[in-house]
Give the backbone structure.
Amino acid sequence: MSMDETQALAALAALSQETRLRIVRLLVTAGPEGLAAGAIGDALDAASSRLSFHLNQLEQAGLVQSRREGRSIRYSATFDTLSGLIAFLMRDCCQGHPEVCAPAMAALAACDCP
Amino acid sequence: MSMDETQALAALAALSQETRLRIVRLLVTAGPEGLAAGAIGDALDAASSRLSFHLNQLEQAGLVQSRREGRSIRYSATFDTLSGLIAFLMRDCCQGHPEVCAPAMAALAACDCP
DNA sequence: TCAATATCTCAAAAGAAATTGAAATGAAAG
DNA sequence: CTTTCATTTCAATTTCTTTTGAGATATTGA
């Protein structure tokens, strides 16, 4: 359940591309039901082969998952990986240096999660 | 103070490289005093020109800052940018979908910050 | 000033990733 | 079983990133 450096690098590399970052944010807001590949392509104005390439990269990195539904393939965000990455990025901050943790906590507090 | 997509992409790209991710984690644990370039190079076993290239990328992305100190140049993590990135990654999670926020909060709670 | 130390710059080469368009696959509806 | 729709695969091209090594620059101490 806890992420290692290799997984974190893969996730960061996947997220560091404009189209892919947009896909992930779109899927995060879409929730667990996710969206069909076609709907993602429409939303981001990306051609099918290009979209397929990026969805694949995201799936390799564990950031999204897919399931077939009729003729479509529906993608959804893998929330565990996303939160694992956040945890990884914050892992070091508490070794006597709360400078990262404190603002990150403020950010979390500002977001009014249930 | 709040990060936009362009800054987030720059930070993610900077962090998605093994040497650079290690530099950042090293500097986070080193705290605000930071470390001289030479000490970073020794810790990561990286040649000077290569190290300089990566430190530059990190500085462009706003993840580290530098100041000269005698003949050394001392680098430290820019904690604001790091927490801004974390806040950006979590920004979407609360639009009715606490699935990301909840585990991220658990991760934060597990880290025993003051 | 000279030598030593610490770091940076630059250009070339190598390596990795993204985009494109055409063709292939797979599932479903008629 | 054939057609249609949704998506993937592939290879070519282009673009971006990383590494390397040699040389330049800045700072200190003798």
Q: What stands out?
A: Residues 5-110 of chain A form a domain with the Arc Repressor Mutant, subunit A fold (CATH 1.10.10.10). Chain A has six helices and three strands.
